[in-house]
Amino acid sequence: MYLLIPAAGSGRRMGSSRNKLLLTLLDQPLIAWTLLAADASESIDWIGIILQPQDRADLQTIVSNLSLSKPVHFIQGGATRQDSVYNGLQSLPPMAKHVLIHDGARCLATPNLFDRCAEAILHCQGLIAAVPVKDTIKVVDQKTHLITSTPDRSQLWAAQTPQGFEVERLQQCHAEGRRQGWEVTDDAALFEQCQLPVQIVEGEETNLKVTTPVDLAIAEFILRQRLA
Ligand code: CTP
Ligand code: MG
């Protein structure tokens, strides 16, 4: 299974001066944990890291220090996550039929989650790992900050990655997204806009996306528990 790891962000919400994926989590750079989990997954046999030029040297060093068992390819990122994944899809070998896309920032996803997604994508066109939301979610008017509605929580799931797709279909959806000017924060949204089905795979509660400093602290706590 082919795996693309978008890692070309800046980590603005982390408030750090460099890409948050290069920050230290326990004794390793954050992205190293993501790579180790992907490498430990039985189903992944090709890894593409999508990066910004200024991070290339650091990421190459991290990868070579990890001595992973699978080949790692370095792919030029874009201005948005959507652009980065678009580039990643262009860089897949022509024989790639299915792909998993997993945010570098979700460094706690387990090899088992990769394996379950890799298995499931052989039987559907598109999927995402997701978990039922625990909070009650409000839709709020941007200007007045008044609540406009409260969606029924039983229908709400929090989207995670890995997300898996048939490569050709996802490429078509990305191309359509560009033509139409759709701006999305995950790949499933492009699939949905194209009226294609996206299956839910049960995600992991611990599979958080490290976004703000508190996430880094929580991730460290979870990793410590796992390694204890
Ligand atoms: N990403 C990417 N290319 C971009 C922007 C983001 O590959 N142009 C990646 C990030 O590196 C991350 C994933 O997409 O692994 C999810 O994005 P997010 O958590 O938003 O990371 P950042 O964009 O780096 O953070 P922020 O939005 O706070 O700046
Ligand atoms: Mg971002």
TrEMBL record:
Catalytic activity: 2-C-methyl-D-erythritol 4-phosphate + CTP + H(+) = 4-CDP-2-C-methyl-D-erythritol + diphosphate
Pathway: Isoprenoid biosynthesis; isopentenyl diphosphate biosynthesis via DXP pathway; isopentenyl diphosphate from 1-deoxy-D-xylulose 5-phosphate: step 2/6
Official protein name in the record: 2-C-methyl-D-erythritol 4-phosphate cytidylyltransferase
EC identifiers of the protein: 2.7.7.60
InterPro entries membership: IspD, IspD/TarI, IspD/TarI_cytidylyltransf_bact, ISPD_synthase_CS, Nucleotide-diphossugar_trans
Annotated keywords: Isoprene biosynthesis, Nucleotidyltransferase, Transferase
One GO molecular-function entry: 2-C-methyl-D-erythritol 4-phosphate cytidylyltransferase activity
Reported function: Catalyzes the formation of 4-diphosphocytidyl-2-C-methyl-D-erythritol from CTP and 2-C-methyl-D-erythritol 4-phosphate (MEP).
Family of this protein: Belongs to the IspD/TarI cytidylyltransferase family. IspD subfamily.
